[in-house]
From TrEMBL:
Domain named SnoaL-like: residues: 29-111
Source species, domain of life: Bacteria
Coiled-coil zones: none
One Pfam match: SnoaL_2
Classification via InterPro entries: NTF2-like_dom_sf, SnoaL-like
UniProt lineage: Bacteria, Pseudomonadati, Pseudomonadota, Alphaproteobacteria, Hyphomicrobiales
Protein name: SnoaL-like protein
C-alpha cells in the first residue's frame, strides 16, 4: 500500500467523524477501519468498530457539526502521523491535534490514537 492509499484511508476515517447520518458513518468506517480496531484519545479508549461508531456519535452530540481537515501526513512501515484541525459547526477552529494510525494488512486502520487538549464546550 502506498502513501496515497493510506492517506485516502485516513481521510475516509476522518470523514466518518463529521456531521453525517449513521448509515454513511457506518459505510465510511467499514471502508477505513478493521472490525477490531482500537481507538484512543486523552478522554477515552474503545475497541471495535461498533464502539467507535458510538464514540463518534457522542462527539457529534456534544459538539454538533464538528469536522476535520488534515494539515499534514507522514507515513512509513504501515504507520501514519496525521496533524489536523477540528472545526466547529460554524467553521471556526475548535481543536488542533495529532493522531497516530497503524494500518493492517488489508490497508484499513487497526489503531488510531489522538493527541490533543480536551475541549470543554463547543465554541
Amino acid at each position: 500500500m502506498n502513501n496515497d492509499a493510506r492517506l485516502k484511508t485516513w481521510n475516509t476515517y476522518q470523514a466518518a467523524w463529521g456531521p453525517i447520518d449513521e448509515s454513511e458513518r457506518r459505510r465510511l468506517l467499514e471502508q477505513s477501519v478493521a472490525v477490531d480496531c482500537v481507538y484512543t484519545d486523552p478522554g477515552s479508549q474503545v475497541a471495535g468498530r461498533e464502539a467507535l461508531m458510538a464514540r463518534i456519535g457522542q462527539t457529534q452530540l456534544k459538539f454538533p457539526g464538528a469536522h476535520f481537515r488534515n494539515d499534514s501526513f507522514l507515513e512509513h512501515h504501515e504507520q501514519g502521523l496525521f496533524r489536523w484541525t477540528m472545526y466547529d459547526g460554524a467553521g471556526r477552529v475548535f481543536v488542533k491535534g495529532e493522531s497516530f494510525g497503524r494500518f493492517g494488512e488489508d490497508g484499513r486502520l487497526v489503531q488510531a490514537t489522538g493527541f490533543f487538549e480536551i475541549p470543554t464546550a463547543a465554541s
